[in-house]
Design brief:
Length: about 70
């Protein structure tokens, strides 16, 4: 029986974790239902132009993030 880790979700968190584990020699499989990786950080086409799939902004009111 082979040991390994399955990660559900190919967004930034899932891919980052997969990278860290693989660097330590862990056998990792990422499961993603979308045809492209990146989660909300990915892009999509809107009116023939590639745009972010999610609105990303940090404002002065985002004290926790800052």
């Amino acid at each position: 029986m082979s040991n390994g880790i399955g990660i559900v979700g190919g967004g930034l968190l899932g891919l980052g974790l997969a990278d860290k584990l693989a660097a330590r020699g862990v056998n990792v499989t990422v499961y993603e239902s979308s045809p492209q990786l990146g989660g909300l950080a990915g892009s999509t086409e809107l009116g023939g132009v590639r745009v972010d799939r999610f609105y990303h902004a940090v404002t002065t009111g985002d004290e926790r993030v800052l």
